[in-house]
Design a protein that fits this description.
Strand order of the largest sheet: 5-7-8-9-6-10
Low-confidence stretches: 56-105
Helix content: 40-55%
Structural class: alpha/beta
Strand content: 15-25%
Shape: elongated
Radius of gyration: 37 Å
Oligomer: single chain
Number of strands: 10
Length: 265
Amino acid sequence: MRTIIRILSLIAFVIAVAWACYDFNFEPILTSVVSFIALISTFIPLNKHEKDMESSSDSQTPAGNNNKTIQGNNNTDNFQVDQVQNLTIVKGNQVNTPVPENKKKIKTLGETPVRSEIFLGRDEDLKAVHERLFSNKLLLLVNGIGGIGKTTLASHYYHTYFDEYENLIWIAVTSGIVDAFDNIALALQLNIDPRFREEERLNKTIKALLNLEKPCLLVLDNANSFEDLEKYYSLLRRLSGIHVLVTTRVSDLSRAEIYPVGRLD
């Protein structure tokens, strides 16, 4: 706009000067002076307010085919929005990019168990474990002798009902419950000093677990020490809202909810 004003002012100035030289008339001389002042004024720098107004005007100029116009609630309100992978909705002064309804934010922590391709005769066991965990039996010991298929059952549960959980954690209990919780802390990327007392480390890990989005599944595989389970049973019970599935050979933990895995016929 300022460039156009400059060009028009320059043309008017030249015409006025030529007219004045031809007729020696006062009026064209005055006109030439006014045109010259208008021309000079266009070279004066913009102040902050004028710059903001000019910037605002430029931002409302329609872009190319890469932009998408979205109408608001008022049919007279049109917005120019850069086209993105997900449709961007403009509401007032806010811009929101919705997450597709079929996309769940699921996070797996720790190991991912291998799913055996052969899984015969355990469908009823799978359903029974699911039913117990989702009927407020939040801590369940899957019990059986070595090699009976406890880990395979837990692995298939993990994969079969994967979409029903927001977070899933699989930890192999190789050196006891405390060591398992230290591994959980690593999976959660917690900054816990190993020099902290055992109780303090456990409390920090439990607090982080309780802050996870629910429902959450925690599988402790091969927790086979009766003394360990007896000692930390109350700690596992503190994980409110988290499904804790423990595979174990322990069968005589009387206060625990146990699902026995028997031999296949």
